[in-house]
Amino acid sequence: MAPASCALCNVNRALILRPKDHSKLCKTCFISVFETEIHHTITTNALFQRGEKVAIGASGGKDSTVLASVLKTLNERYDYGLDLILLSIDEGIKGYRDDSLETVKRNAEQYGMELTILGYDELYGWTMDQVVEQVGKKGNCTYCGVFRRQALDRGAARLGVRHVVTGHNADDVAETVLMNLLRGDLPRLSRTTSIITSTPSASANPASNTNIKRSKPLKYAYEKEIVLYAHHKNLDYFSTECIYSPEAFRGSARALIKNLERVRPSAILDVVRSGEDMAKLVPGNDQACGGMCSSSIPAAEEEEGGCGSAQGRSTGGDMASVEARLRMNEAAADSNLETEITAKSVSGKQHPRHDSDTVSLASGNKPKKGFTPKKTSKQVMGQCKRCGYLSSQDICKACVLLEGLNKSRPKNKIEVGYEVQDISLNSVRDELEATTIGGE
């Protein structure tokens, strides 16, 4: 049987079965398609501005390495006019981060980019090895995730950078959507599914109005395709897994996503789009991300069908309208009035009234007074009173975690002093002679 030819050029031999749509491509066409899609995502969502200084969150792994390589290539090819630098965070994990940082240093030389490395010990006074020693291996990823996100923003503020890009891919976003659903944390979906977010006042000075913009250019790129791109481009990256990550809750969501992808390759993007649609139903979702969450999906992505695709999109605000109708029903119940409930058709027209559409509340079966339907809480983002970082609470999660760690750490060394007494037979005899026994 003759080898299959590339589905695009029809000249070269197909070497790659693309994970996203199972199309057969040659090496050259796959690299070109991958870079073109990233460029389309960047231009469609207007991620960059000419002359902007952008920090790439570099860990030495496949995602950040591919991101740095692609951005350098596209910046030169399409003349974005960007000043790209690398920003790395040293969590202080021996046998893992110290080795990956060596890869980042090599990448900085290969791509000709400035590199800045900040450590947890410098920012927080703790390394992750010390945190794990204190809290154990279960739950340590919570500390690392909170500290790392804040460390990137603080590092960018120190460097005078207003835009940080990260290597989060479609698999990562889909996993985060599932994790938020499993935890019942719908208000967080608006930030986790947005391709652009903003962190107000991420600098050390709470009085400043510094805005750190964060974006995910690889949001719609599959993890498998990122690995294929790195392989065929011969990129230098670090592939060892973190020694503390097997205990993370994300592993359960990742296993589910991989099983879904095996059955249906489009499941990853379907979950991402579903998360985007659900985020629109949460009241105040624009406020949750500093007003920068509204972003359009690339046209190439919208053409694909599936759950949560463009065919099923709504204009948003549906949950708010439902709550308004519930309040009207309560008011009608208190006044013994009738409330007519009608359903809207797909075309937006109302159905004709039927007897079954009218619910009489005058029959005496009124709901209990004081009953209030459960509402989805809004997340009003503000600033931490201690560090000035983005937080929906008065004290951000990083400060709360640090306070717990510092309370358990002894502040001073405990020194025990004692004097050695000379106990001899003569001293014992003298004490015995001086002792009087009553009754003699």
UniProtKB/TrEMBL annotation:
This is Cytoplasmic tRNA 2-thiolation protein 1. Belongs to the TtcA family. CTU1/NCS6/ATPBD3 subfamily. It comes from Pyrenophora teres f. teres (strain 0-1) (Barley net blotch fungus). The lineage of its organism: Eukaryota, Fungi, Dikarya, Ascomycota, Pezizomycotina. Residues 382-411 form the Cytoplasmic tRNA 2-thiolation protein 1 C-terminal domain. Its EC number is 2.7.7.-. It is found in: Cytoplasm. It comes from the Eukaryota. CDD domains: CTU1-like (cd01713). The gene is NCS6. Residues 336-348 have a biased composition (Polar residues).
